[in-house]
Amino acid sequence: MKITDYFEKVKGQTLVSFEVLPPLKGGSMNDIFDTLDPLMEFKPPFIDVTYHREEYVYNKQTSGYYEKTAIRKRPGTVGICASIMHRYGIDAIPHLICGGFSVEETENALIDLNFLGINNVLALRGDARQFEDKFIPEPNGHKYAVDLVKQISEMNKGVYLDSNIEKGTPTDFCIGVAGYPEKHFEAPNFALDIQYLKQKIDAGASYIVTQMFFDNANFFRFRDACHKAGITVPIVPGLKPLTRKYQLTSIPRKFFINFPDELALEVQKTDDKNIRQLGIEWCITQCRELKQEGVPCLHFYTMGDSETTYKIVEKI
Asked: Which CATH number, 3.20.20.220, 3.90.1180.10, 3.80.10.10, 3.40.50.720, labels domain 3-313?
């Protein structure tokens, strides 16, 4: 079922969904099942599975030179989605990124997903590699998420890259895209970032999932700006509880988001062993307010921590 159909089916109610990371190379599907098994109590209609592009390491050779070697730290997104659908009988949403894929490889990945009966995707540009100061697309790959959305939308019309294909079978992907309540860090300003988001919706995206945030005021400002710009698709807030004191600096540095003053002060006053409980209580308060505002779904970035996520969801 399409994600938007779930929202329409229970209109006026708030669903919950979860996002998982593929295990590190050498890991097992049991890592995913251990995270998801306890959360199935809450009957999520879908699970997101992230995709991580290849990274590079530089290994020093006996000659003194460094050899650049490609590695894939978290392979298996498509296989994990298929396993989740088989085990739990619910939809799984693979993240599809621009980074590391040519347009031909993207098309082939979409064909494989279509054959597997996976008809929901989250279309993302993806991040720059660790050693790059800006995003560099693959040769003959997409530079922006909007171009990826356009390619998927064309396939939904039966249009493939090979012009010799006549009457190609249309796919039926429901396309999600990312939104940034505090703006994407590369956008010149908030207003222009909303315009970029509108372009993705106009290109064929059907719903939005936001970056994590800790201040609901930022989400409501973002939602209202989207509505003002003519964006009418469902907007799903993405949530992650604070669990460690060091995250007060690491999360803003990595995800370019801010902590509200009240939370930051409480974290500074709280000893390490009580930070997780503080984060749980803060996230519960966020969720309750978001539910009152009628959001279609609360989407939790589990990061492999089902226990913390469980404690939040059971209270809301």
From this structure: 3.20.20.220
